[in-house]
Design brief:
globular; alpha/beta; two-stranded parallel ribbon; about 35% helix; 10 helices
């Protein structure tokens, strides 16, 4: 059996679940693009802790970590079970890699987790174990998290990072909520940033990718803060040293909000 690909998705706001878009269609098709996972290890940009934390909750609830969206979004439930035994095993694997994990016995699904899951696997019948990011640590740290768990792919377990390839909410809010015209040069800066990643992945430039803050163009225009890109590095590390990156989706909203999603095979 071929290893399960590791996956990074841009998850968007919760409205992606109910509003038509190219990104909605891609996330809805995700389950058909992969073998059915035995379990999913979910790394969401909205689960931030100091150091790695693994959730062992057998029945995670819902976290509606957003405001001002359609009322039906606050009524959605994604009842996928947790998997405490797998969570314990993940913690041991991270410990063996020197990453000093902790276990959290209770935590629900934030929208970074349930947005893509409710579209890709709506039956909610695949166990999910959540693993946190650390917003104060760099790409190399999150890449190491993925590397430590990469052997799980051989068992049909999906290692999934959910963040965003670009995440300049200030520009979005200014344009949509306040009616301000965006900087006309911003779409070009977004394109340069996303294409830089595509080029580095194609060329296998791991050192450059992990040094993205110093080497990528227009970093502050795309990521005023780092947390939404960290799940990408987790998925990249989980793909292993010989992984072949493949951009599975590339679309835009508002001209400057990109939705790139990647598989690492």
């Amino acid at each position: 059996m071929n290893p399960m690909p590791s996956v990074f998705v841009s998850h968007g706001g919760p409205n992606v679940v109910i509003e038509p878009s190219e990104a909605h269609d891609f996330l809805k098709s995700l389950g058909s693009l992969l073998p059915r996972p035995k379990a999913i290890v979910m790394v969401s940009a909205h689960f931030e802790t100091d150091g790695p934390v693994v959730v062992s909750d057998p029945n995670p609830g819902m976290i509606y970590d957003f405001g001002g969206f359609a009322p039906e979004l606050y009524e959605m439930v994604y009842p996928a079970p947790g998997e405490p035994k797998l969570a314990t095993r993940i913690a041991r694997m991270l410990e063996s890699a020197g990453l000093d994990p902790r276990i959290m016995p209770k935590r629900g699904y934030d929208h970074g987790a349930w947005n893509p899951l409710i579209l890709a696997w709506p039956k909610a019948d695949i166990p999910v174990v959540q693993l946190s990011i650390d917003p104060h640590r760099d790409a190399a740290y999150h890449h190491a998290l993925g590397e430590a768990l990469a052997p799980l792919r051989d068992e049909g377990i999906l290692l999934m990072g959910s963040g965003h390839i670009t995440h300049n909410l200030r520009a979005i809010f200014a344009s949509i909520r306040r009616g301000q015209e965006p900087d006309p040069e911003l779409p070009g800066r977004i394109e340069a940033f996303t294409e830089w990643f595509a080029e580095q992945f194609e060329q296998g430039n791991r050192d450059a990718i992990l040094d993205w803050r110093a080497r990528a163009p227009h970093v502050s225009d795309n990521h005023p803060t780092d947390e939404h890109l960290m799940p990408l590095f987790f998925a990249y590390g989980a793909g292993g040293l010989g992984a072949r990156p493949e951009r599975m989706h590339h679309s835009r909203q508002y001209g400057f909000f990109s939705w790139d999603s990647w598989f690492f095979r």
